[in-house]
UniProtKB/TrEMBL annotation:
Domain Transposase DDE, chain residue ranges per copy: 14-217
Pfam families named among the record's database cross-references: DDE_Tnp_1_4
InterPro entries: Tnp_DDE_dom
Protein name: Transposase DDE domain group 1
């Protein structure tokens, strides 16, 4: 007889049991594992405490934490478009993975709409919040690195700075046609750790920016 694995219970909700039983229940169960990582890192709480949200509080039905989880977890699981949240609106797994509530309460709750997440994206991109988002990213990277070797931080790391063409399908402000790529793009700089591949920062630049443009002022920052 094969060995039977014990169910895994995520710390965010003791009512959930994750187990392998051969049934096709969902293909997104990894969202619960990612939720566990987010909770252990403390990054969502740090963002919630420090982000400046100028949206009218009486018009917001969902906590900032649940909105952030929805945005991060859906993208991490391959649901890239904001419109995907409507597709997943009544999916029990996503209701459980993104909610602040425990027990079966999340199953009776609505999830953030596409419009709500769109406004959140605008909020995250404001001048008040760019540095806060970067700090959240760094917090997540530091947590992951210290989790790899029993809490020991690496003595030395190599920072790679690369350009990353992002093709756009329209004439968004700041985008431009780039002859090398044969497309209309943004040309952000991305900083990552050579040893692990972790992204530690990014700088959005116009599509016609030179390869090293702004790097000398951005890297020290």
């Amino acid at each position: 007889m094969g060995e039977r694995l014990s169910p895994w219970i995520p710390s965010c909700n003791g009512s959930i049991r994750v187990e392998l039983d051969g049934q096709r229940t969902t293909s997104d169960s990894g969202a619960l594992l990612l939720r566990e990582a987010l909770d252990n890192s403390g990054v969502i709480e740090a963002l919630e405490d420090n982000l400046v949200d100028r949206r009218h509080p009486l018009r917001i039905r969902h906590s900032l934490a649940s909105q952030l989880r929805t945005l991060v977890l859906q993208r991490a699981m391959g649901w890239i478009d904001l419109s995907d949240t409507d597709t997943l609106r009544r999916d029990p797994l996503w209701q459980l993975a993104c909610s602040d509530a425990r027990g079966t309460t999340p199953l009776a709750q609505d999830r953030p709409s596409q419009a709500t997440l769109s406004r959140l994206m605008t909020c995250l991109g404001s001048n008040d919040n760019i540095d806060v988002v970067h700090e959240g990213l760094l917090r997540l990277v530091v947590w992951r690195l210290t989790s790899l070797k029993n809490g020991e931080r690496p003595e030395q790391l190599t920072l790679d700075i690369d350009g990353l063409p992002i093709e756009v399908h329209g004439h968004q402000g700041g985008s431009a046609f780039h002859g090398l790529y044969g497309a209309r793009i943004y040309s952000p700089l991305v900083a990552s750790l050579a040893e692990t591949g972790d992204m530690v920062g990014g700088l959005l630049r116009e599509g016609n920016a030179g390869p090293a443009e702004n790097a000398d002022t951005w890297i020290p920052h």
